[in-house]
Amino acid sequence: MLKKETKFLEELNSPEKKIGLRATAYFTSKDKSVLSKDLKSQLTISLGENFLKDLEQNLKDKMLSPNNLLVKMEFSPLPEKMHREIFPFFKPGSYLKIRDILEGILFCQILREEWGLNQELKILNIQESLSTKEKELLENFREQQIKGLIQTLSDKDPGWAYSALVILARLHTIEESIQTGSPVFLSSFPDNSPIVYKEDSQDAQALQHFSEETWAIVSLARKKYPP
Which domain of life is it from (predicted)? Predict the structure, then answer.
């Protein structure tokens, strides 16, 4: 976390003011989403008619208010030295709160404007075909992911916006898998991108876990229900 906060301050102090928000690289405004309309309807039913609009406005107000987090930026002090009686707890600074606000605003925009998934960050396996049972399992998995997204947006725990963006990207691949009949997975983040930085090991492990989790469903279905 200290490394991430240091990089964040470097980005804020750079002449370009370019802040790396990795999960936004999954989406592009050049392609239209095939699931955003239905997803927005489900969010409206669960969270309220103006939830998305109010969330975006609330996040923008936090960033543009006179006493916003950029004005009263806090940088976490180094942990205290190790003592027998005191554990050197690390106190987070403003980084995560600001990242949540920025990624949250972009999440709302991506969903509102119905951005599609970036074709360069998809892995397609057109040589494999999904069985009817596999499609059913993916449909159930999609419903669980939607419930998870609703819970994430409702709770807004630290890091919620990043989680929401990743779930949204996963929903795109699940939907495409069901529609095309072939497995589609999320790729890791590109090494060089105009809008993102290299992923750290935790990001890579998390994304690998997401892909493995999806593939496990397909693999299990193949064992139990051969085509």
Answer: Bacteria
Closest CA to 56 of 117, 112, 115: 112
Q: Cα separation of 183 and 175, whole Å?
A: 10
Confidence class of residue 66 from pLDDT cuts 50, 70 and 90?
A: confident
Residue 197 structure tokens = 């930085």
Q: DSSP for 93-120? A: -SHHHHHHHHHHHHHHHHHHTTEEE-GG
pLDDT computed for residue 16 by the predictor = 62
- At 153, the amino acid letter reads L
Q: Per-residue pLDDT averaged across 107-122, rounded?
A: 93
Q: How far apart are the first and last CA of the chain?
A: 46
Alpha helices (runs of H) in 65-200, residue ranges in sequence order: 95-112, 132-155, 160-180
Q: Which of 172, 204, 157, 221 is nearest to 38 (CA)?
A: 172
Greatest alpha-carbon pair distance for the chain in Å reads 62
pTM: 0.71
Quote the tokens at residue 205.
Answer: 């492990």
Total length of the chain: 227
Neighbours of 163 (CB within 10 A): 22
Other Cβ atoms less than 10 A from the Cβ of 62: the count is 17
